[in-house]
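Lab meeting, action items carried over

1. Structure of the two-component assembly. Owner: GW. Status: complete.
Input record:
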Amino acid sequence: MNGQTAIAGGDPVRVTKLDSITFDFLLASVDGPRAVFDLAGIELITPSAMVQLAAVCHALARSGDRPRILVPARSVRGYLARAGFDAVVQNVAWIEPSLPWNPYEYLHGSNPMLIEVTKLTDGLSLPELLDHIIDVLRNSLSYEKYDAFDVATAVSEVSQNTFDHNRDSDTCGFLAMQVYGTGRKRFLEIGVADYGDGLATTLRRNPKNLPVHSDADAILKAVQVGASEHDDPTRGSGLYHLLQTGYKHQGTIQIRSGRAKVRYRGDKRQGWRFDVQHLDGVQVALILRAKTQSLGTH
Amino acid sequence: MEVRFKLSKFGKHLWTRAKAKTIRLELLAQLEKLHQGDTLIIDLSSVEVFDFSFANELFGKTLLSLRTEYVGRFLVVENLTDYTRENLDQALRALGLAIIERKGTELSLLGKAHAVDHATFAAIAQAGAPVTAAALRDELGVNVTAMNERLSKLVALGVARREKTASAAGREQYEYRVLA
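Predicted assembly:
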């Protein structure tokens, strides 16, 4: 398949942006062993797409495959390197054409509008990332301090889930963030993904959560307070808080696990379910818009 | 005896369950040194934010351990901001737990407590000395069964302590108090 197309109104539409929605077109185009992810035609790739792609590459590597990621566009190729994607998939995927070295490595951490794709294996790297998110929300998206704390808290909970719920399966998580636009049109996207057991499997470990009929059912259960694999009252509030925070700030939240995803719109306080190609683990996208006219550009 | 545990020495932004676990070990070491009736104060001055995992692990698990391993010790929080108070209250409500907050000399409850629990707790605190269920019953105007239920709940939450004493007539009775 050369490039990505989606069907809209019966007509194929060329996809130029790989994000939390169109990532599933890409995943659906890949079948069988020796996976190839063809990013021809893609002009922009967002944090949630990058962390999902990282998760699927690691999942494939775990089953013995080493996928190829074809990135003909030089700008996208450069962005993937700049955004740290190369570093987290270097041992599990081939990126073609390859760069002999990462010319952007020295820039790591220098752009406040970007959090490079970061591997989460424990909580050690999280405090710095969360403080970065607070700074961006306050200084670039005009969030009040406590609102920024709310968002960071929700991201913290979801990020901890990536390694906390998958301790026995030797997996990890990924987090990335990018700020787009200027002024009132400025927004940020945060992606968090893992390739662990997924919501249905983890929730089924606790009989109190039964029955969990499907992946979609698991997502809907997981956004209720107290749903957890652990029979422990101190567990199970991460996705609930994420959704409440997204609603409060009228953001967009997408939760994907297994063969389902639910996309919630904060302004409507409503979620829409979609059946998607299977992907191990849980993948979350959070999109938040600037509160008011913010100063400066990037 | 009161022992103060300053949380800000671990940072003003306190993230993750893992971080709380390491702090809780230090907190438990302090609790070990206390005797029944003693108080451990968690001082949150300068702490701006903590996540729910942190709150659940540090406050939630420590409160749960008061019921079994450190019976009769009090855990008190001080110097919360409006934000940390709201988040701690929310975290404890979800866990069905409560903690004592002290502001100056004023004591109140955060977390899962009904209005009648707040009233009963306040009545014990205002008494300033151990007080019997009968005295509280008279003050709050409820029957003895209801008062005993309220007091049992506060004791189970670890926010009040029950002590066996003898009445003036020499009868065995229970008295209730909060903090020393």
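2. GW to write a short summary for the group page. Key points so far: The radius of gyration of chain B is 17 Å. The beta strands of chain B are 2-6, 13-14, 39-43, 49-50, 74-78, 98-103, 106-111, 131-132, 161-166, 172-177.
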